[in-house]
């Protein structure tokens, strides 16, 4: 795995968002994560429903 030379990296400057902006980013990511969890729950429910339908077809 290649490694960066510390002397080169230490001279770089990075823009860091303000605390307010960081808070907005965190809020957005949390909302996105909650959405993903809800969609996974919906998917699991649909998969269970599918299983039931498939079992009903082959009885």
From TrEMBL:
This is Type I restriction modification DNA specificity domain-containing protein. The lineage of its organism: Bacteria, Bacillati, Bacillota, Bacilli, Bacillales. SUPFAM superfamilies: DNA methylase specificity domain. It comes from Planococcus antarcticus DSM 14505. Keywords: DNA-binding, Restriction system. InterPro entries: Restrct_endonuc_typeI_TRD_sf (IPR044946). It comes from the Bacteria.
